[in-house]
Amino acid sequence: MTAPAEAPATGTGAPPACRGRFAPSPTGPLHFGSLVSALASWLDARAHGGTWLVRIEDVDAPRTVPGAAQDILATLARFGMHADEPPVWQSERSERYQQVFAQLEDGGFVYPCGCTRREIADSLLHAHARHTTLAYPGTCRDGLHGKPARAWRLRVPDGDAAIITFNDAWQGLQTQNLATEVGDFVLKRADGQWAYQLAVVTDDADAGITHVVRGADLLDSTARQIYLQRCMGAATPSYLHVPVVTNELGEKLSKQTGAIALDTDNPLAALHAAAAHLGLDMGNNVRSESLGTFYRNATRAWSERLAQLETREQT
Ligand code: GLU
Asked: Where is this motif: 'KMSKS' region (predicted)?
């Protein structure tokens, strides 16, 4: 297997039309943190005159809460965010993930891993004590050593080829060494579930997503996703990671950290708070009278924010 090269620029000159998306995991109702991501991706698509899609990320069946996806979609509609195409459900795409996985296997990018969680945790503990890498040590790279296959991993390259660099439109230049910071990562889990990384990259590629806008908690996954795109021969979209919303303990808002569902009776209050979190200058700070006014002002403010971020890049 040779490390895949960066995908060459394709096409006949004109950049593809902007396609953005919001990809919630249905583990609970929409909360303020996920509203911020939804709003940012919506505004970004609109500011680029593009299309906005919704994908329900229910690939992780054990974590999916029944009814949560419908609840999220209803809340988005109540807040005035309507997807331009029918939502995609990851739970309906297993066959497609299998197809992509088989292609990666054929390309020699994937190998079976027989390590148990316990064995990996032990080797990481030893590595920690020795102050060496915390990445998966590659125990099964050259064979299963008589153990049964549990998970399937993508082989990351060694040396300079492992360094992935990208420019995040909000967070600036990012670099990650996949070999030393991540290691060969799982595409198919021991419980038979497809891993998030494989599903996201396949879905974004199939939907022709050009602009990924999401929370900064996913910044750390991006290098893996870019490498996977290269292995699959898929184009790399542009990335923009917005600051995550945290609680008073500094933890990312989630169901586990006590995020409460949004007050759907008062969408404008929550939307203004989300715009403030994104640092949008909404003019004289007067509450918009309608969702239409809010989105018009917020789209203008988002474009200004993007221009500011770009200027910062150049200075
Ligand atoms: N499903 C992920 C989440 O809810 C988002 C994935 C993405 O936007 O790429 O955190």
From this structure: 252-256
Q: How far apart are alpha carbons 262 and 75 in whole angstroms?
A: 8
Find out whether the beta carbon of 19 lies less than 6 Å from any atom of ligand 1: no
Q: pLDDT (tens digit, 9 = 90+) per residue, 151-171?
A: 999 999 999 999 999 999 999
pLDDT band at residue 1 using 50, 70 and 90 as cut-offs: low
Where are the domains positioned within the chain? 19-92+245-314, 96-188
CATH of 19-92+245-314, one of 3.20.20.140, 3.30.750.24, 3.40.50.620, 3.30.1330.30: 3.40.50.620
Find the 159 Cα to ligand 1 centroid distance in Å. 30
Q: Give residue 246's pLDDT band: very low, low, confident or very high (50, 70, 90).
A: confident
- Which pLDDT value is given to residue 312? 81
Q: What is the pTM of this model?
A: 0.91
Q: Is 23 in the pocket of ligand 1 (CB under 6 A)?
A: yes
Binding site for L-glutamate: what residues are annotated? 21-25, 57, 196, 214
Say which CATH topology domain 96-188 has.
Glutamyl-tRNA Synthetase; domain 3 (3.90.800)
For 148-181, letters b (16+ CB in 10 Å) and e give: eebbbbbbbbeeeebebebebbbbeebebbbbeb
